[in-house]
Structure prediction request, 120 residues.
Amino acid sequence: MKRPLPITILAVVLIILAALNVVSIVATVGTASIGRTSWIIGTFVVSVASIYGLWRMRIWGPILYLASYLVGWIAFFVFPPADASTYLSTTGLVIAIAIPAIYLAVVLPYRNRFRFQEID
Prediction:
């Protein structure tokens, strides 16, 4: 089964964003606390795993992505960063809603083509 073009484009964009996030991780490692650094690296690993699931058209990819996005927002409100007001601006909230909305708009039309297990 061939991967749909919108899913491929979404996965490639997410891979590029994850690669750009590496720069953020490297910059943060030296300045953030150990707990915050661990959280950032853990989030990165989960994101890469969910992108892999999306690329392979596995149902757990989108579920993992959306679950990690939700957990990230919960953690943001439980342990707010020092610059939390920047993220809570109108622009920040629009972006925070737009990202999962775009993801769902691309993935949902193909939900029946995602597989539960390896059949290759």
Remarks:
- Helices lie at 5-29, 34-55, 60-78, 84-87, 90-107.
